[in-house]
Design a protein that fits this description.
It contains 18 helices and 28 strands. The longest helix is centred in the last third of the chain and has 18 residues. The protein has about 550 residues and is α/β, with parallel strands linked by helices. It is globular. The N and C termini lie far apart (about 50 Å). The protein folds into 3 domains: about 180 residues, Alpha-D-Glucose-1,6-Bisphosphate, Chain A, domain 3 (3-Layer(aba) Sandwich), CATH 3.40.120; about 220 residues, 3-Layer(aba) Sandwich (Alpha-D-Glucose-1,6-Bisphosphate, Chain A, domain 3), CATH 3.40.120; about 130 residues, Alpha-D-phosphohexomutase, C-terminal domain (TATA-Binding Protein, 2-Layer Sandwich). The structure holds alpha-D-glucose-1-phosphate-6-vanadate and cobalt (II) ion (CO). The site of cobalt (II) ion has 7 residues, from loops.
Length: about 550
């Protein structure tokens, strides 16, 4: 071992957002940028010393360089063992599982999730704590503070490991273990779901289509869906992870997973269509001719999860992020279990999961997950749907229709206005916030504003407060308009406008027409187009 102490100066922009530090690759490639951020983590998270750290990423460009640097710095900072995914690959949920399984003190998850990759794309680092969840706000604030006063980093450049071969490399007081993360993850899924029932369902002629969008879940899907469950190899598409995700945008939604959507809207579409994102934590679910919105998917899974062996005991509780539609609330009420509303970002679910208060949780941004790990989990959601379909004998459209007939339907859309100037985005937010108090009690056609505020959250487990988490205008149980600023964009500012309208009379509308009136009202109240000069959103999901 030969530890070097390299002098450095702080960068001012290393504040982690909704899901870690996410920046353009170019920014990460600046000398000392990656090193500074890693050193800030090693300086803050003292339990890492003398213990185990998990490292893996979604395989995007810069993954390998970052891992080599992280290994050299981990050794120099007194970490005793690093567990790395083979080829540097670990999906985000698989990394969370590995941290839990191996009792690691933390993990570095190298990903910018669904953001495009390649030399001109984005890169990112999330620090996950013991237990497998993302670092909470208190810790990320500490890491940021530490990055602002950094003056040196420690590195041992003699550490050289072949991450393309499983095995253990031992150095003086330090070792690196390269593991095939697929095995452990597949075993976990097998414990939770009825693989025999799914196998029989597929054998009976039900087909699926899974699109890995050239991102990290390809090998996981092949192993589980094809090798273990017997789906046709040709039905798992774009399954080879590429450093630039094939030039695409690995975001499983109606815009970026167009090919899958077209496939599922065609005649003779398979029984289930699904896709995941760059790092494997998001999912999109479609039935033949029908897109299941993420908020609905959460609610429908909550209603049926007891059909899966890992959840036979029922649910302890449910949670959703604030902008996610309130469909899950109705299921929770019927089940007689609590439903928590948290700020955007998976880390807010982790205390509730650790404390045993919830079993399933989700976000409108195509994220669903459960107590099995501390990240959202794309393939988990796909397997949960497969298990529910196999166990219930229902098709996706039948299940959805029955659900809406029972609970009513929450029509939902998200409008993203991307690459705005910071000033323009703040101007819209400030103008709306100033006008919120005057809105309460006002009536707009059949809708009356019952609450208008900037969402704040007190964690029921540790009492920590999160403030200014998004502006919401609530019309009782009927509708909501929500506006918030993204914490994951890497260029300018992104504003997200969320529209939700609950209907019990009409269950068969298409969401844009069901939400047309609310959209007009949102423009009247928020003035996004008027204030930004834009003619409409960049992305609608
Ligand atoms: C977005 C989503 C949010 C999600 C986050 C990370 O954040 O809206 O729900 O938790 O991405 O997702 P924002 O701040 O840009 O709206 V991902 O798949 O890292 O992992
Ligand atoms: Co992701």
């Amino acid at each position: 071992m030969s530890v070097e102490e390299i002098p450095t100066q702080p960068f001012s922009d290393q504040k982690p957002g909704t899901a870690g530090l996410r920046k353009q690759v170019r920014i990460f490639q600046q000398p000392r940028y990656l090193e500074n951020f890693l050193q800030a983590i090693f300086d803050c998270v003292t339990p890492l010393k003398g213990s185990t750290l998990v490292i893996g990423g979604d395989g995007r460009f810069y993954n390998r360089q970052a891992i080599a640097t992280a290994l050299s710095m981990a050794a120099a900072n007194g970490i005793s063992r690093v567990i790395v995914g083979l080829g540097g690959l670990l999906s985000t949920p698989a990394a969370s599982h590995l941290i839990r399984l191996r009792g690691a003190s933390g993990g570095l998850v190298l990903t910018a999730s669904h953001n495009p990759a390649g030399p001109d794309g984005d890169f990112g680092i999330k620090f996950n704590v013991a237990g497998g969840g993302q670092a909470g706000e208190a810790l990320t604030d500490q890491i940021f503070a530490s990055s602002l006063k950094i003056s040196r980093y420690l590195i041992d450049t003699s550490i050289n490991v072949d991450i393309d071969r499983c095995g253990i490399s031992t150095f003086d007081g330090f070792s690196v273990e390269v593991v095939d993360g697929l095995d452990d993850y597949a075993r976990l899924m097998q414990d939770l779901f009825d693989f025999d029932a799914i196998r029989a369902w597929l054998k009976a002629g039900n087909r699926i289509r899974y699109d890995a969008l050239h991102a990290v879940t390809g090998p996981y899907a092949r192993r589980i869906l094809v090798d273990q469950l017997g789906a046709a190899a040709a039905d798992v598409v774009n399954a080879v992870p590429l450093e630039d995700f094939g030039g695409g945008h690995p975001d499983p939604n109606l815009v970026y997973a167009r090919e899958l959507v077209d496939h599922m809207m065609a005649e003779d579409a398979p029984a289930l269509g699904a896709a995941s994102d760059g790092d494997g934590d998001r999912n999109m679910i479609l039935g033949p001719g029908l897109f299941i919105s993420p908020g609905d998917s959460l609610a429908m899974l909550a209603a049926h999860l007891h059909r899966c062996p890992g959840y036979r005991g029922g649910l302890r509780g449910v949670a959703r992020s604030m902008p996610t539609c309130r469909a899950a609330d109705r299921v929770a009420a019927t089940l007689g279990v609590p439903c928590h509303e948290t700020p955007t970002g998976w880390k807010f679910f982790c205390n509730l999961l650790d404390d045993g208060q919830i079993t399933i949780c989700g976000e409108e941004s195509f994220g669903t997950g459960s107590s099995h790990v501390r990240e959202k989990d794309g393939l988990w959601a796909v397997l949960a749907w497969l298990n529910v379909l196999a166990a219930s004998g229902l098709t996706v459209p039948e299940l959805a229709q029955a659900h809406w007939a029972r609970f009513g339907r929450h029509y939902f859309m998200r409008h993203d206005y991307e690459d705005l100037s910071l000033e323009a985005a703040d101007a819209v937010m400030n103008a709306l916030e100033a006008g919120l108090p005057a809105l309460v009690g006002q009536r707009f056609d059949a809708l009356t504003v019952t609450l208008a505020d900037n969402f704040a959250y007190t964690d029921p487990v540790d009492g920590s407060h999160a403030q200014r988490q998004g502006l919401r205008i609530v019309f009782g149980d009927d509708a909501r308009i929500v506006l918030r600023k993204s914490g994951t964009g890497t260029q300018g500012a992104t504003l997200r406008l969320y529209l939700e309208h609950w209907r019990q009379d009409r269950l068969d509308l298409d969401p844009p027409s069901a939400l047309a009136a609310l959209e007009t009202l949102a423009e009247q109240l928020v003035g996004l187009k008027r204030l930004t000069g834009r003619s409409g959103p960049d992305i609608v999901t």
